[in-house]
């Protein structure tokens, strides 16, 4: 028998989803619910990776994309600060240069204005998706807490006030709090914040519980998942594994920051971030919060308090940079003064950053689809992205208009 024929095996599934993060899992789940049989393949262990150790914030507040006016100049100023929340390491590779070029081209007021209603509608549809999942089984720590964007400098107060107005104009429910208002809303606060903007429609989940919950729902309904399996290539109707090709009618790539390894035309860069998690003190601030000057997040989840931050565009680095995690550890120490940082595991993950701040959800070639590039909002947008991908593959009514997320939208640039 010729070797190629021997190594090709039809999958029992009619869709293969590549990626076991939160996007792969919601994609698999909603495709399954639309009547397709699904095989999920993931290079990592279940419950690992970027979708696990993140801040778990559900963020309709984030209506402005990362690519906005002023970001480049702020980024350049931050380049001189070793512990800055944003870090960019110039890299001599074409994909990185192309990404930067596309990012720069989107740092305009017109792009921000265009994105605001798109991101708002996408996020609010996703919150509904979370509510529906919680109504079935409330097992992933969903809480409608709101989100505080807090500050202690007047410059940041002005910037956040401006963002609050933008969000209000977009129809979101927003309250600006002074120091007393902040203390009243957020008891047990130990940070130096002197004011905050409260976005009441935001929420939080426990990402670790969410991954387990999605996986359970998918597998209990008959879905098959294989972990620790690395796909080396994708073509119409088949995926390549080592020594084997699996065939299916549709292939959906949900490989997060690794997506360009399988689909080189999809412009995504890994944006690394860190988090540390401590057992929640008896008196913990209940509302998720971003300390805007250092961009450090704090999220109370069932039994634990998680601190995160840093956005580093420096490829797939393996070493933890002790300077970059310092602001995160400093904040954690306010809640656990005896924290032994030498023994504390530091988690890191790679946000799949697109150049225009919108995910890529759509068709790439005959029978090949992509659902990736959710940047800092992958958890938040997971339900709606899964539903959208499922609707596009099965040809049913999408939950939001799909055009802004078309995978080929940047090709002209
Ligand atoms: C510090 C930090 C804080 C964050 N906080 C938030 C937050 O509060 N709210 C929010 O919404 N988002 C947050 N994010 C972003 C969020 O974590 C990501 O957007 C999201 O996890 C991306 O999910 P994903 O499924 O696309 O990718 P991933 O979770 O990275 O999953 C990719 C999957 O693809 C698999 N894979 C890759 N290549 C292959 C291959 N060749 N073959 C087979 N499998 C492959 C991997 O094994 C993995 O299973 C945060 C991120 C960081 C780093």
Note down, in words, how this protein is organized:
With 413 residues, the protein is an alpha/beta fold. The protein has a single domain, classed as FAD/NAD(P)-binding domain (3-Layer(bba) Sandwich), CATH 3.50.50. 32% of the residues lie in helices and 24% in strands. It has eleven helices and 21 strands. The chain has helices at 3-7, 22-33, 71-78, 94-105, 109-136, 154-169, 179-185, 207-220, 259-262, 322-335, 382-394, and strands spanning 8-10, 15-18, 38-42, 57-58, 86-88, 147-151, 174-177, 195-199, 203-204, 224-227, 233-235, 238-241, 244-247, 250-253, 269-279, 289-291, 296-301, 304-313, 347-353, 360-365, 368-372. Strands 5, 6, 7, 8, 15, 16, 17, 18 and 19 form a nine-stranded mixed β-sheet that branches. A hairpin with a 2-residue loop joins strand 20 and strand 21. It is globular and about 65 Å long. The termini are far apart. The relative contact order is 0.21. Residues 1-6 have low confidence and may be disordered. Bound molecules: flavin-adenine dinucleotide. Residues 18-24, 41-44, 49-51, 54-57, 230-231, 254-258, 261-262, 273-275, 308, 349, 351-352, 372, 374-380 line the site of flavin-adenine dinucleotide (FAD).
């Amino acid at each position: 028998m010729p070797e190629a024929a021997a190594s090709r095996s039809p999958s029992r599934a009619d869709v293969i989803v590549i990626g076991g993060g939160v996007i792969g899992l919601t994609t698999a789940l909603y495709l399954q619910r639309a009547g397709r049989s699904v095989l999920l393949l993931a290079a990592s262990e279940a419950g690992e990776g970027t979708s696990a150790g993140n801040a778990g914030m559900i963020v309709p507040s984030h209506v402005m994309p990362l690519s906005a006016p002023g970001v480049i100049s702020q980024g350049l100023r931050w380049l001189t600060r070793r512990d800055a929340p944003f870090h960019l390491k110039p890299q001599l590779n074409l994909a990185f240069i192309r990404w930067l070029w596309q990012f720069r081209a989107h740092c305009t007021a017109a792009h921000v204005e265009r994105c605001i209603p798109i991101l708002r509608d996408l996020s609010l549809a996703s919150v509904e998706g979370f509510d529906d999942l919680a109504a079935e089984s409330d097992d992933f720590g969903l809480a409608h807490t709101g989100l505080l964007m807090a500050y202690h400098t007047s410059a940041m107060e002005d910037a956040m006030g401006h963002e609050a107005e933008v969000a209000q104009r977009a129809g979101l429910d927003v309250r600006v709090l002074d120091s007393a208002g902040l203390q009243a809303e957020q008891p047990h606060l130990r940070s130096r914040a002197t004011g905050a903007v409260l976005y009441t429609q935001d929420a939080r989940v426990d990402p670790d519980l969410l991954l387990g919950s999605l996986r359970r729902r998918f597998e209990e309904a008959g879905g098959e998942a294989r972990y620790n399996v690395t796909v080396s290539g994708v073509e119409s109707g088949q995926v390549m594994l080592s020594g084997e090709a699996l065939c299916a009618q549709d292939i959906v790539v949900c490989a997060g920051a690794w997506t360009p390894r399988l689909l080189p035309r999809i412009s995504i860069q890994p944006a690394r971030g860190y988090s540390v998690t401590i057992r929640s003190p008896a008196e913990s601030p209940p509302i998720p919060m971003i300390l805007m000057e250092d961009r450090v997040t704090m999220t109370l989840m069932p039994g634990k308090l998680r601190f995160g931050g840093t956005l580093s565009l420096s490829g797939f680095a393996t070493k933890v940079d002790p300077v970059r995690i310092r602001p995160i550890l400093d904040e954690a120490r306010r809640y656990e003064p005896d924290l032994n940082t030498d023994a504390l595991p530091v988690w890191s993950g790679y946000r799949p950053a697109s150049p225009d701040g919108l995910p890529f959800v759509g068709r790439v070639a005959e029978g090949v689809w992509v659902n990736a590039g959710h940047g800092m909002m992958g958890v938040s947008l997971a339900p709606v992205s899964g539903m959208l991908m499922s609707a596009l593959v099965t040809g049913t009514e999408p939950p939001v208009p799909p055009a802004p997320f078309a995978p080929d939208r940047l090709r002209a640039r």
